[in-house]
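Morning!

As promised:
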Amino acid sequence: MSYAYLFKYIIIGDTGVGKSCLLLQFTDKRFQPVHDLTIGVEFGARMITIDGKQIKLQIWDTAGQEAFRSITRSYYRGAAGALLVYDITRRETFNHLTTWLEDARQHSNSNMVIMLIGNKSDLESRREVKKEEGEAFAREHGLIFMETSAKTAANVEEAFINTAKEIYEKIQEGVFDINNEANGIKIGPQHSPTNPSLPSGSQGSMQGGGCC
Amino acid sequence: MEYFKSGLKSVLGTPQEGLQPTGAETVERLVDRVRSSTLLDDRRDACRALKALSRKFRIEVGAQGMDALCQVLEMDRGDCEIVGYALDTLCNITASESFEDEEHPHLSPTSVGSLGEQFTEIFIKQHDNVGLVLGFLEEYDFHVRWPAVRLLTSLLANKPKDIQEIILVSPMGVSKLMDILGDSREVIRNDALLLLIQLTKGNANIQKIVAFENAFDRLFDVISEEGYADGGIVVEDCLLLMLNLLRNNTSNQSFFKEGSYIQRLAPMFNLPPEGDDTGWSAQKVSNVHCMLQVVRTLVMPGNPAQVTMSSQKAMKACGLLEILCGILMASGVPVDILTETINTVAEVIRGNHGNQEYFASVMAPSNPPRPAITVLLMSMVNEKQSFVLRCSVLYCFQCFLFKNEVGQSQLVQTLLPSSTEVANLTTGQLLCGGLFSGDSLSNWFSAVALSHALVENPAQKEQLLRVLLATNVGSPPISLLHQCTMLLQQGSKMQSKLGLLMLLSTWLAHCPQAVKQFLSIPTSIPYLTAQAGSNEHDDSEELVQGICAFLMGICINFNDDTVTTFSKEKLRQIVEKRLGLETFLDKMGEVSKHELYSKAAKHPQLRPKQPSELLLDHEFCRLFRALEGMVVRALSSKPHSDLVNGSSEHSLLASENSLLLQYKELIREQDHKLQELTQTTERLTVEKSTLQREVKDLKSTLSQLRDENMLLRAQANTGLGQTTSGNTLGREAFHMLEEVRAEARRWKEQSEQKDSLICKLEEQVKSGVVSDLDTQLTLKSADQTIASSDIERELQETRQQLAATEEKLAELATANGEIEKMQKDQEDLLELLTDQDTRLNQLKAQLRALGEKVDDDDDDNDEDLEEEAEGCEDENSA
């Protein structure tokens, strides 16, 4: 499939907050209650549409465990978007957000869009972190915020797509240098500025039938 | 050398005549200067000199200078020149190979080899040192960046695991290395490639980070810049790095697929047009070989099925499979490339139906045009073809048949007698030809290829039984199974025998009919028994014995006892009495103990180095593993039923015999009864069906009647509705009339009042009250006249209204007449309905008598009707 843009995402946050489940729900539309511990980093991809444009999301799901922190840091630099996830039923995962955010800000490019996600919103009875607290944290640090449930799929789609929308807007505003691939953004093969005269639609359909 | 000497002189001063210092002494003095000189220039010169000596006096420089050099890296990092010298020196002392001019009189050659490793160990003891070197990668100066890359490469070569771990945990370590790949200076870029190849070996985490840092894009860019397959060794390096990133790394494989990189592989296989004599350089062969490896890594049988399937699909969609098939059929392709291409095509189509179908449709540009498969098989059964090529064709054919029922049946179909004349050489004929040829390798290939048409396909096992061969002119045709058995018995060559045994095992497993046909050949079991019981102790002879035992086991396991001479029990007795259970099981056990068994079982592709290693097939090993336990169980444990079934009547006692006869009689009786009962059942079924038909007819009449009834009811309802509407009309008119009357009364009263007032006034006028009132009176009377005229108008209107009301009343009277008429009609209809009901009841009674269940609500019909009628009357009265 051809695409107009390709965005690289990373998913970060404490271990067990549901990062891999969010990715699985987004890419495969299924939920796996018992998920193996992520070792290092795992890859997933999906195509979405924003503003009538095909956008390919490449997502690297990182291990939350401290032991892998040095490995996962290598992924900050080349990502255009990050999903910072905590678990609304475990207060400490919320408390660690500051550390995560510092780490991300330090190693990533300054334009990286960060979406704060309070996951497991289906477990209302065991909630330890109020929605307002998440909103306040996001406001304070200039993040987008959402509560999701990888189990019921509530808001999962929105979380990934809204992040992409934000990145897309930043591109439109000229904030991102789209020719620098280190930003985690790539222009689709037929959209490269070398042949801007070609109408994107017809080109795209000609190239179809490839992957996915 | 002169330059170095002059350099030395300038640093050390001119040595005294006749008192040459030893290398060690010189190094010592230089190290001292590097460490303690206060002037940067002095340190720099000393460092340059150390670099010059670091090849010849490697041990000395390494042993004494390591700390000083690290100190330079740390303290003098601002000066590119001295850092460059220090890095170069470190490169030399940690190099894994030795230098020509190296001098180390006291060391044995073996310890020289480990010198680089030892110095590496010393260098990385201080983890920060590696971090320092990584830091120098960010320095653009050629004299710093280049040696930094080379130093890291040589450190990696000596201590790969340690360096990988250090780089992985140093911040942005891998990313810094990836940036070097974009260096415009080719030397640095190429060395960075070599460094990354070392770095990514066997470390999945680094592989993923490198891929994340857009490695695939950059590599494809370099490859296309260098001219794809025609490029130099850099292309090969790029491909080697790509292989490292993909091999056994599922995450990267799926990233490769998702990133549409498979599409970028396709143009790499474009071959020069026909007639181009530029030929295949050694480098081109290596490049294409690596490209094929990259393709294979994505579709290897060991990969997760999801990755393999989606990659196969993408390869077909982007035309890669087509291009590869083109190479298969092209001329002038070197044989090892051709072999590897066949293997690659094999894995691209393996288990993927669409791709297998495409492959079957590929035609070779021969005259007459033949399917590519046929041409390939011709090579497989051709003694003159290279051995590896023949092996790859088998692999390709086996992948073509893998999970491909259509392909399997088409192959068998070519062997079955058909009405259409087949002019062309078919795959089946080729394989049969190979099976009966004098070349034992061809026998083996053909037998195994044919066995793959039967894997997990019971239908084809039975179909193949129908194949007949005309061996000699005049003699009757003989079945393929029979012929194979004959060949097995006549054959003397190990390879042919093993091939045939594997074919027979696959054929007979799970197919009682094949077992039956095999057992009907009188010599088959005696042959197997003799082989299994033989005592020769040749390595591969034991394989034959073991598989013969296994085949006997299959004959026992899948025996339907139709061949009485070799029934299950009889075969079991043969095993026990002639061979001994222990010996039998030992022989069978030899198969799985064989060295080649574990090799073949591991991977679908056989990679024999020489023809003699080609004995066992992967699919056969899987079959053996699956059935081994079953055969052992079937032999060693004796179920009770066997005792009864197996013993003949003769061995029974007389009493038992009579008992048996009684039972037989009983069974016969029961049989008879059963037959009778079956007949009765049949008769009853027929009766039942006729009854059902009748009931159905009745039902339809009933429903018809019900419909009619409904219709009538509806009509009746409409009739009632009409009367009601007439009634309401009357009621409305009546209301209006009443209102009008009341109004008229009111007006009358008012006019009477006014009349009296007028009278009074007239009297007052007459009695002649006050004259000045006259004018007022006249005015008043004028008012009065106006008022009275108003009243008169109103009265007139009222009268008109009254007339209209009267008219309406008259209409109502006629409507009432109509209502009466309708009521009469309704009564008639009700009468009709009652008639219908009685008829319905009669029918129901009839149905009940016939045993058909009649819906209860039908009974309520009458009541319903009555209720409805009552409802209508209620409305009327209201």
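Chain A touches chain B through 25 residues (CB under 8 Å).

Hope this helps with the figure draft.
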